Amino acid sequence: MKEAQNEKQMSKSEKSWILYDVANSAFTMIVTATIPIYFRSLAEGAGMDAAVATSVWGSATSIAILILAVLSPLLGAIADYENMKKKIFTVFFAVAIAGGLLFTFAPGWISFLVFFILSRIGYSACNIFYDAMLIDVTSDERMDRISTYGYAFGYIGSCIPFVAGLLLILNCDALGLPMARATQISFIITMLWWVVMSIPLYRNVHQKYSVPRQEHIVSGTFRRLGATFQKLSKDKRLLFFIIGYFCYIDGVYTIISMATSYGGEVGIDSNSMVLALLLTQFVAFPCSILSGVLAKKVGSMRMIKIFIVMYIAICIFGYGLDTEIEFWILAVCVGICQGGIQALSRSYFGKLIPKEESSEYFGFFDVFGKFADFFGPLIISACAFFLNSSRYGVLSLIVLFTAGLILLALSEKHNLHKE
Question: How many alpha carbons fall within 13 Å on the CB side of residue 191?
């Protein structure tokens, strides 16, 4: 009885790690919802066409992701040295917050995009080391549970600053504030939430696994990167999984980051889009936790495959989307899937890799994830620019999900051979 109780209880480090997901998910929420709408108002106010604004926004997202994708393996390898993980995390945390405060008061759409890219790079870099800290705070047996709880509480916790900001925006006239000023204040609320909720991670999460420091850190790091790349190329189970992850997570991230831009293009009211995306967060909370429970019963890989099939259906539905109620239905469907597929992918990968080199491997993991986040918005942007509609871009994501499904099957096949 006592053992079962201990199994259910979380350690202080596990809780503190989960709370950082609550912290940074608030930024994810405004990147998905209010920031694209705010940028669109700046761009269209300067005379930019709606389809071009979608294209420019997608391109800015792609630039931020591409820069970090190039740096991720090197940053991850350096972070694996003793006591380096949190130090590098802190540098990029400062970059993210500073960039956020700067884009809040940017005078035009160009400066807004520059500072947004800076903040997005800092946010994404922090996630490399945060994901790698999962190895330090829990065991393989508990990893699915802790990872899914991180996403779950991140979704529900992010709603607190978001709702506060949203109420401010919706009641700006009654408060005597211009909508633009109310939106800027909502961004500041998010940045403050991010800082405060990150404090437990700094106090209670410590690097448990590391590699010995080398005399020549730079040259030694590059040698380690080369050795890791060779190990990845030889381990077919891990290689097929990470390439498959690249494919299917491309579609997941694209749907998340381009939802409001696409909705605005097809004529969905801005307030309706924001409220629908808020509903996504509430749906994602229990569904993320449920995915961890189901993964324990049927296996995390099987759950990932189920979510991929559901996303294929979402793409088909999204292609024909043109009414507000359909956008709400889409938001609910995405909420069911998005937390589970991301959390289980993270924990499944964490169980496959050497713990002492977790940051380096998560750096490679992040490269595949970030290049996915680069190509997805680029596909949508290209369709918006050349075909004057993003619908075909949404439909094309089916190819990526299908490729991911095939590659995961190949990964499992090599896993059976290995056993």
Answer: 22
- Cβ burial of 159 (10 Å; 0-12, 13-18, 19+) is middle
DSSP 81: B
Residues 6+ apart with CB under 8 A from 43: 52, 53, 56, 57, 109
> Domains, the chain, ranges and CATH?
12-202+219-418 (1.20.1250.20)
> pTM score, two decimals?
0.77
Cα-based angle 204, 365, 381 (whole degrees, multiple of 5)? 115
- Do residues 255 and 318 touch, judged by C-beta distance below 8 A? yes
For every one of its 419 residues, what pLDDT tens digit does the chain have, with 9 covering 90 and above?
343 435 578 899 999 999 999 999 889 888 877 888 888 888 888 778 777 777 788 778 778 877 877 777 777 777 777 778 888 899 999 999 999 999 999 888 889 999 999 999 999 889 888 988 988 999 888 999 999 999 899 888 888 998 899 899 889 888 889 988 999 999 999 999 999 999 999 999 998 877 766 655 556 666 666 777 777 777 888 889 988 988 898 888 777 666 656 666 666 676 777 777 778 878 888 999 999 999 989 999 999 999 999 999 988 887 777 777 888 888 888 889 988 998 999 899 888 888 777 777 777 777 666 666 667 667 767 776 776 666 766 777 888 899 999 999 998 886 644 44
Q: How far apart are CA 376 and CA 333, in angstroms?
A: 19
Q: Is 212 exposed, middle or buried (0-12, 13-18, 19+ CB in 10 A)?
A: exposed
Q: Which two tokens stand for residue 297?
A: 């019963």
